[in-house]
Specification:
Strand content: 5-15%
Largest sheet: 7 strands, parallel
Number of domains: 2
Shape: globular
CATH class of the largest domain: Alpha Beta
CATH superfamily of the largest domain: NAD(P)-binding Rossmann-like Domain
Distance between the termini: 51 Å
Helix content: 40-55%
Radius of gyration: 25 Å
CATH architecture of the largest domain: 3-Layer(aba) Sandwich
Order of helices and strands: EEEEHHEHEHEHEHEHEHHHE
CATH topology of the largest domain: Rossmann fold
Structural class: alpha/beta
Length: 336
Amino acid sequence: MINDKNGADYLTPKWSIRHDINETLTIDGVARYGMLELAGFMWCSELCCMLLREERIEGVMNQDRLSKDELNQDLLDISDKVVVVTGASSGLGMYFAEALAGRGATVVMGARRLEPLEALSARINDEGGNTLAMSLDVTSRDSVIAAFDLVEETYGGADVVVNNAGVAPNKPFLEQTEQDWDQTLDTNLKGAFLVSQVFAERVIKAQKERKLENKPLVQASIINIASILASRVIGNVAPYSASKAGLVQLTKAMALELARYQIRVNAISPGYFETEMNSNFFQSEPGKQLVRRIPQRQLGQVEDLLGPLCLLASEASRYMTGSVITVDGGHLVSSL
């Protein structure tokens, strides 16, 4: 018994854990006045210790214990993956395609502008990569279905999708038109929805076939490219900020519903990255002031996104879903 300063008695629990784990495990005793959670914690700790001693934690201590070969292999290996990258004709999408192909992945590049994609694909393939360029309008379900039909015909299906396609009309809120809003939301949010849905449907169909054939299920991965503007805002990009906030929530909603099918859904939220399009701005005084507000006092380089991208595309993230990885030099945690 434990007696507090007010004279109240707390009945400490009595433990009677039976060491035959096939029998029911019980706790005798009552914990009152805030002791219940402590009792539960102590009971769980004792139970875990017992199970660890008997090496009976299924799937961790025995079946799924990593072999020496698995421990020594590259956890971020994606050489066996077929990856679809949307919006791959320029910017981050182009870099993603090149970087993933450079690490051995088979990369299917999709965008509305096919000509620059074909030139990019030819260059990567000449350098030893394996890529395919395809026409893709993420705002059209028919176009998305046709694209995944081509992926299945060519490679048997995709393992990873990178939803990167996006637009960002830059003008004050009062000057944004309904067309600006529709184009931005259709590309940035609806596009990710359509691509993910068509991809997931095909993965689920393939999983069912594998199950019937008694083959092990394989994990698939959806990677959404969001933005720190899903959490913080700046002027002149209201539709873009709204679309990225929606994409983060869509990521979590899909993660919840698709986990049972071995489909992981995560997002990467980049901060400010130096590109050809914005280099002039960041050399200006307003641009330099913005950089000074970043805790690391520097812009990101596209190479900084490769680690998170490979993490989410590889089996190293097999227990991650619904996560948003922020890559921003600490911008989101800077003081207001």
